[in-house]
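MODEL INPUT / OUTPUT PAIR
PAIR INDEX: 1
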Amino acid sequence: MLHIKEFREEHGIYASQVVEVVRERYPGYDKYLNSKVENPEKYGIRLVSDAEQMLENAFQRTLSAPRRPDSRRLPSRISAGCQRRCLTSCNRRSAPLALTPCRPACNI
């Protein structure tokens, strides 16, 4: 048995997207019925197994590629969009990551 509300939250989809997918095969399915399906302990309503399969197939989670490691030559240098003279003064500081602004106009 698929818990629609948990499934929807795990996959980051909206209730309206669930309604669109189920409505393709079951045209009487609407947002009010979806709300009742998401609360089966309160209403005693759940989707048929065919509709659950449609949802699982429509919103399959695909794994994204892992992030590449940081390969910068000087990873402790700050490059946050400051002006050039501000950036050079920030990078000359003794701390490896100086996150305090070097002047009031600097927003790092």
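PAIR INDEX: 2
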Amino acid sequence: MNKEMIIDPEIKAMFELLAEDASTMEACMAKIKCSLSIAAELFHINKVELKLEAPVSKLCPEGQRAVEVLYDTGDASDGEPNISVFPLPSGGTVTIMDYPRDQSKFSSKELELHNMLLRQIFYKISRTMTQNLLQQVMMTDMSTGVANQDYLMHFAGGLIASGQIYIILNMSIKCFLMSRVILSCVIMPSISKI
């Protein structure tokens, strides 16, 4: 089998942008917007909208809601949108709608390609949300919601690296509580016996 696979350079550039890592949701959305601007002509896209709804949770006390236009030619479109709804593990959803350019609706072959593209967009958003969640879990004491020792050291390192002089006071509540327990359980009873 000596067949050569030829990939359109624009499609390749689009998928490479979608595969790139993004540390924040803002960077993620910027990469998605850039990839859609590359793909819009090839996929006959007029407009792409995203709606994110995540429920209230311990890690996200206000929940998360966002509506964002990922791509828009600015032309009015009366076409029927292709709507894809993706569930989030937290119980929320990501809904992505893409509108056709100069036609009433997408053909079945186009829908197949669009659904593949929208799925890749969702994977990028989901991956970025998961990375942010893991970062938050690693830097937060889950029982109190307060920044943990690792975050404080990371923050202090950033201050020191900035070249400015800071005085850093680090009090560990856990160590304070542990010393209080030792005082009340070991030292105080022995003093009262004297």
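PAIR 2 NOTE: The first strand starts at residue 45 and ends at 54.
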